[in-house]
Amino acid sequence: MLKAVIVAGGRGKRLGRLTQKIPKPMIKIGGIPVLEHQINLLKNYNIKNIIILTGYLSHVIEDYFKNSNKWGVKISYFNERRPLGTGGGLKKIENQLTDDFIFLSGDVIFNIDLAKLFYFHRKKRSFATLVTHPNDHPRDSDLVETDNNGRIIKLHPKPHKGNRYFRNLVNAGIYVLPPGILKYIRNNKKTALEKEIFPQIIREKRVFGYNSPEYIKDMGTPERLKEVAKDYSKGKVGRLNLRNKRKAIFLDRDGTINYDGGNISKIEDFRLLPKTAEAIKLINTSEYLAVVVTNQPVVAKGFCSISDVEKIHKKMETLLGIKGAKLDAIYFCPHHPDRGYPGENPKYKIKCGCRKPKIGLLKKAQKDLNIDLSKSWIIGDSERDITAGKNAGIRKILIKKNQIKFGECPIKTQTANDIYSAVKLILKKQ
After folding, report:
1. Which of these is catalytic: 254, 381, 385, 418?
2. Is 136 a catalytic residue?
């Protein structure tokens, strides 16, 4: 039977008076301690054997949960007499961890489809799997770098230098770990998994990042605690689980998010349009996903590589993150159908199903993120964007400029002056 280990020994000094008499995981959201929210979610996925690593004011946790019969789970405790970090406590319960287990930070409110997480872990034959997600403060978060297959190739601990660009993939503090990880941890030594253990196993083993757009938020500051409480009161925490259909606002890139200089192939040429970050922040505060779907024929034309496009997207995510905005996913088509041009890359000179106005990118997002297309929108500045929306059966807004790319759009649709106006229009209709 799958076990869960929850690290719940933190004091939470940034929360001030709130944690003078109770440990941070016992702060209540909606009248229920954060730790109880986590236990209830684990139980919903039939994870009923739970070990809690306690420390600061451990008696508060043990007195509250006691023998745990009330929750229909089995809870045991290990009290760290002195702080051992996220890894040191695991070594102390080594004899109880004989199979893969889920490991949680006790200060995170989350609601993710754990069945999908475990399926991903098994399918990838992953030694360890780290849950990642985009957030609205990546500059002060530990970031995860993955390859195209989701395998983690490097961790980037905070703080981050201002002249570097990263994907907005944040370590969520939720892991699926094997008992084999314990051999990397020394006994009776304070150990940080994130800084000391994960970098080593990433070099030696298959470690993957499971990127989730679901609700995951730490409540370690007064501001974040207030935001989590507000989201919970509105039912947002539960609704954003991937078991539930989501709605999305699909965004074209060039000419919608950033200035369109024509065939952008160099990272220095990428610049956000005014109020783009503000528009995407509005999406983030709604229950729409913010998903980029963009044609990038610069690859097929030989102007740049797939890697160059991904670097440009890292810059896009970094610039948005600095302003507190996040994208839930990015999909791009590198193909172009017309052959016979100097320097072209013949590998990508094909007729595909993903280049807009075809709907391959939209369908991929629909499958990955369980999107209800009938309740979704697309915002773009070309006829191809609007036709793709029509072909996919979603609502459409055209960014109206003096000269529409590829000529006047023959499809009757709503228009807006820019992405910010378009998003405001959508949310007003909602």
Report:
1. 254
2. no
Q: Are residues 186 and 325 in the same domain?
A: no
Is 236 domain-assigned? no
Domain hosting residue 79, numbered range: 3-231
Reported pTM = 0.92
Taking CB atoms within 8 Å and a gap of at least 24, the contacts of 135-139 are 135/168, 135/170, 135/216, 135/217, 135/326, 136/281, 136/284, 136/321, 136/324, 136/325, 136/326, 137/321, 137/324, 138/166, 138/168, 138/170, 138/317, 138/318, 138/321, 138/326, 139/321, 139/322
Residue 197 placed within a domain: yes
Catalytic residue among 100, 142, 231, 252: 252
Give yes or no: 254 in active site. Answer: yes
Q: What tens digit of pLDDT does each residue of 356-366 get?
A: 999 999 999 99
The tens digit of pLDDT for each residue in 217-264 reads 988 889 989 999 999 999 999 999 999 999 999 999 999 999 998 889
- Three-state DSSP state, 271: coil
